């Protein structure tokens, strides 16, 4: 015969605690569910606390920019609201109607100017703004100036193009002159290097100290010779000036002598003329009257 053995389930401490906690949670849930709730009340969790944040808390958390209530509602939410007396000014009412439309409840007639405002606008237009004819004349004058300026510029370009050949020739002459100067300078330097090498007696590089020393000596000799030549030229100029002064003085003396002789000749001629006239008068007078 088969022997049957009954196995009694063993319940550990953890299982007991788990079962006990489950019973407690179930009892708490049943107790909470038995609590009367209204339709408007926020749902509660198993601990009897409000489940989740309220709508005001959610809205406040969404406003991370910390904007004022007026700016937040108007700019972000698009909700029209009035919070200050300035919201009822004509200018602000027009802005609000243009932004929010009929939902504001503003009379659309406020968007049109009154008779007095129209009269003021007409006065301002006539006093401070130009008429259509005046603006047209100004535009025509400006356009005419632009055309004249463009024509003058075209004429200037044509004149410059006509001078292009001359300018090109001048540029080529200048470049040729510069190249010739460079060649002359190079030839002069080569000649000086040759003189230094001949003075030393053997071939030496230009960066050699001996070469540099002789080059400086030759340069001083050239400067001394040039200075002496300038002194001689200056002395010759002074001598030439002295000779010119002497010749000028002699010419003046000759001119003075000629002038003096001319004056003497004139005086003698006058005296002879007077004497001749006196003799002729004496001859005409009768002897008895004398």
From TrEMBL:
Residues 171-237 form a coiled coil. Residues 256-265, 280-290 have a biased composition (Basic and acidic residues). One of its GO terms (cellular component) is nucleus. Residues 34-55, 252-290 are annotated as: Disordered. Signal peptide: none annotated. The keyword Iron does not apply. Residues 34-43 have a biased composition (Polar residues). Its main location: mitochondrion. It comes from the Eukaryota. Gene3D superfamilies: Growth arrest and DNA-damage-inducible proteins-interacting protein 1. It is found in: Mitochondrion; Nucleus. InterPro entries: Ribosomal_mL64, Ribosomal_mL64_sf. Keywords: Cell cycle, Coiled coil, Mitochondrion, Nucleus, Ribonucleoprotein, Ribosomal protein. Pfam families: CR6_interact. PANTHER family: GROWTH ARREST AND DNA DAMAGE-INDUCIBLE PROTEINS-INTERACTING PROTEIN 1 GADD45GIP1, LARGE RIBOSOMAL SUBUNIT PROTEIN ML64. Belongs to the mitochondrion-specific ribosomal protein mL64 family. Acts as a negative regulator of G1 to S cell cycle phase progression by inhibiting cyclin-dependent kinases. Inhibitory effects are additive with GADD45 proteins but also occur in the absence of GADD45 proteins. Acts as a repressor of the orphan nuclear receptor NR4A1 by inhibiting AB domain-mediated transcriptional activity. May be involved in the hormone-mediated regulation of NR4A1 transcriptional activity. May play a role in mitochondrial protein synthesis. This is Large ribosomal subunit protein mL64. It comes from Tropilaelaps mercedesae. The lineage of its organism: Eukaryota, Metazoa, Ecdysozoa, Arthropoda, Chelicerata.
């Amino acid at each position: 015969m088969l022997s049957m053995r009954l196995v009694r389930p063993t319940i550990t401490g953890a299982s007991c605690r788990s079962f006990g906690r489950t019973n407690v949670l179930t009892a708490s849930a049943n107790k909470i569910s038995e609590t009367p709730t209204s339709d408007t009340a926020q749902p509660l969790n198993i601990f009897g606390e409000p489940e989740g944040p309220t709508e005001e808390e959610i809205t406040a958390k969404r406003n991370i920019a910390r904007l004022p209530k007026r700016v937040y509602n108007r700019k972000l939410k698009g909700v029209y609201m009035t919070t200050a007396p300035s919201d009822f000014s004509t200018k602000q009412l027009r802005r609000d109607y243009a932004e929010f439309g009929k939902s504001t409840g503003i009379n659309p007639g406020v968007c049109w100017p009154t008779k007095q405002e129209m009269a003021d606008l007409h006065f301002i237009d006539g006093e401070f703004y130009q008429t259509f004819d005046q603006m047209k004349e100004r535009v025509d004058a400006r356009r005419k100036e632009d055309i004249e300026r463009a024509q003058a510029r075209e004429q200037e370009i044509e004149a410059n193009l006509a001078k292009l050949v001359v300018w090109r020739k001048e540029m080529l002459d200048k470049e040729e002159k510069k190249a010739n100067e460079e060649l002359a300078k190079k030839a002069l330097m080569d000649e000086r290097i040759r003189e230094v090498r001949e003075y030393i007696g053997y071939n030496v590089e230009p960066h050699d100290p001996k070469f540099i020393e002789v080059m400086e000596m030759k340069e001083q000799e050239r400067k001394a010779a040039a200075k002496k030549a300038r002194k001689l030229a200056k002395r010759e100029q002074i001598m030439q000036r002295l000779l010119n002064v002497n010749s000028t003085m002699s010419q003046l003396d000759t001119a003075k002598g000629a002038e003096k002789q001319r004056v003497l000749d004139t005086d003698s001629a006058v005296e002879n003329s007077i004497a001749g006239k006196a003799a002729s008068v004496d001859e005409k007078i009768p002897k008895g009257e004398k």
